[in-house]
Amino acid sequence: xxxxxxxxxxxxxxxxxxxxxxxxxxxxxxxxxxxxxxxxxxxxxxxxxxxxxxxxxxxxxxxxxxxxxxxxxxxxxxxxxxxxxxxxxxxxxxxxxxxxxxxxxxxxxxxxxxxxxxxxxxxxxxxxxxxxxxxxxxxxxxxxxxxxxxxxxxxxxxxxxxxxxxxxxxxxxxxxxxxxxxxxxxxxxxxxxxxxxxxxxxxxxxxxxxxxxxxxxxxxxxxxxxxxxxxxxxxxxxxxxxxxxxxxxxxxxxxxxxxxxxxxxxxxxxxxxxxxxxxxxxxxxxxxxxxxxxxxxxxxxxxxxxxxxxxxxxxxxxxxxxxxxxxxxxxxxxxxxxxxxxxxxxxxxxxxxxxxxxxxxxxxxxxxxxxxxxxxxxxxxxxxxxxxxxxxxxxxxxxxxxxxxxxxxxxxxxxxxxxxxxxxxxxxxxxx
Length: 432
Prior knowledge:
This protein has helices at 12-33, 35-44, 65-70, 103-119, 139-151, 163-173, 182-194, 224-232, 344-352, 385-399, 410-417, and strands at 85-88, 98-101, 127-130, 154-157, 177-180, 206-209, 237-244, 249-252, 260-261, 267-272, 285-291, 302-308, 310-311, 323-324, 329-330, 335-337, 340-342, 357-366, 372-380, 404-407, 428-430. By secondary structure, it is of the alpha/beta class.
């Protein structure tokens, strides 16, 4: 399938027709090359020649993470000699899953991130400082590099962590943009303050942020984390991008910051309720994706586990592609606590709003009554009873319920947040 960067500016009817043509190509490819989907089509008695409209997707069963784990090799559509790169998922929702990419898939990744960076206002004249890992079987870091290369942007592969090295690189090379996990920006600010670095007048002017929510999924106002970064570093414009290994695509904000634009020539997105039915536009639903143009391991109606809202209206930027809100939560991480339904990001937003907290871990476990219990492990210099009360009062005012709070050494929580094999900072541990 040929990509078309201009299709996002086309009419809704033209976008739909483009995706339906891509869907037909994808189904034919799966029927010829995917053992998993060939078996599905035969088992369900589905004639793919009768699938012509996006609405017809409901004829297919949903694909789950369990399917990928149990039948991993059955999803691979090319021989071993056709595979160029192997990556794995992060394992957030279970054991990591291996994905195989062809040379064309790598080209597609580069094109996807070129779209992403362009949407965030980057140009060929920018220099990108890559503050995420490019190794450890991580697809995203490689995708960012390929996207920068595709655009003709300069790129500096610094990797994650090490504020001293980040600032030394900024001083030496003068990058204008960063690809970064947003909470790390606060660590850069803290290091700069302690070491006399005038970060307000440094070269960085834009940060494309992955892995943590910067905006409220309903109002699009900055989250507590986003607001803290903005107040500390107002010269830096923040852009959110959302992606996953399984999707092999990303959804990035434009300068209007009203949700991440769907790359409609690369992916079909459905938002579904618990019964697998489409939710109305604007309502939360599970992001379910069908990849277009993937050779190695294309997926059909894959349930990501992420809960988002779909915004169908055209964006002031001129794109008519629908947008996704920031992630409200993960379906499997939903917490039912004292009669209230919660997702971890809502708890993070409360904790990020308490400056005395250095770091934290939210743990959920099953209590003696068989119901969910929430424990917040806090790293802080203040361990007073008054501080515990203030933390609980903050939770009650924001999410109506208060979890248990325990104080731990900051260094201990830091180790829990970043175990040796992890590629992401862990803030949530599910022990249910």
